[in-house]
Amino acid sequence: MSGTGARPAVVVAEDDDDIASLVAETLRADGIDPVLVSNGALVVDAVIDSGARLLILDVQLPGASGIDVYDLVRNQPALANIPVLFVTANPELARGTIRGRAPREVMAKPFDVGALADKVRELLRAEIAAA
After folding, report:
1. Closest to 71 in 3D by CA, of 89, 53, 59, 88
2. pLDDT digits (tens, 9 = 90+) for 10-58
3. Is 103 exposed, middle or buried (0-12, 13-18, 19+ CB in 10 A)?
4. For the stretch 17-45, what's the b/e string if a residue is b when 16 or more beta carbons lie within 10 angstroms of its beta carbon?
5. What is the DSSP secondary structure assignment for residue 123, as one 8-state letter?
6. The pTM is what?
7. Which domains are delineated in the chain?
8. Paired residues of 57 in beta bridges
C-alpha cells in the first residue's frame, strides 16, 4: 500500500498453519505486516498490541470462536470500528450469525489470493480514509 507511511499491521486469526502462511505471504507481498494468531482467546490483545488496521478472522478457532472474538472486538471502544474480514469455510454460518451487527466482510475458503489481496487493500483504504 503506497502512500500510507509505515507498513500497516493486519492481525490474521487462523488456526490452519498452511492457510495462515498463505495469507501472511500474500499480505507481505502487498507491503503489509501480518500478525499471526492461532488461538481466538489471544486475538484482542494481538490487535491492541500491534495497532492493527484490519482483522482477518476465521470462524472456527480454538480458545474462542471467531464469532465470539468479533463480539469482543466490537465491545472494545478502541477497536469498535476496525474492519473485520471473515475468511471461513462456512461463509453462510458467518453471515447468518453476524447478520445485523456492525459492518464486516465475509470471504469463503478456499479463496483466490488475488481476490484476498484486493479485498484487504479495499478495506485498508477505507479504514485509513475514515481515520
Report:
1. 59
2. 999 999 999 999 999 999 999 999 999 999 999 999 999 999 999 999 9
3. exposed
4. eebbebbbebbeebebebbbbbebebbbe
5. H
6. 0.89
7. 9-130 (3.40.50.2300)
8. 13, 86
